[in-house]
Amino acid sequence: MNPTTVVALGREAMEVALLISAPMFLAALATGLLISILQAATQINEQTLSFVPKLLIMFGTLVMVGPWMITLLTDYIRRLFEAIPNLIG
Q: Exposed, middle or buried: residue 72 (CB in 10 Å: 0-12, 13-18, 19+)?
């Protein structure tokens, strides 16, 4: 196992982590932005107002994108386990 292989494995792991976290992060970001604009327009300064919509949107996103996330992660782990004999010897 040489340094190039280690770097490639680390890069692929980071890519998978970013792909898995991106839908949830973007949903929370968009919801927070919309709630903040609504709060600024109505001058409601309640910090807990954005919590419930974010929670609901993130749950909906998880329900919609969850199977894709699981498939992506299991495919990565399967490829990693199948590559173990080549990495060791």
A: middle
Percent of the chain with pLDDT over 70: 99
Confidence of residue 1 (pLDDT cuts 50, 70, 90): confident
C-alpha span between 2 and 62 (Å, rounded): 38
In Å, how far from its chain's centre is CA 59?
Answer: 13
3-state DSSP assignment of residue 2: coil
Whether residue 78 is predicted with pLDDT greater than 90 in this model: the reply is yes
Question: For residue 50, what pLDDT band results from cuts at 50, 70 and 90?
Answer: confident
Q: Which of 58, 60, 53, 56 is nearest to 35 (CA)?
A: 53
Q: Which residues of 3-29 are buried (b: 16+ CB within 10 A; e: fewer)?
A: eeeeeeeeeeeeebeeebeebbeebbe
Kindly state the tokens that stand for 29.
Answer: 């970001």
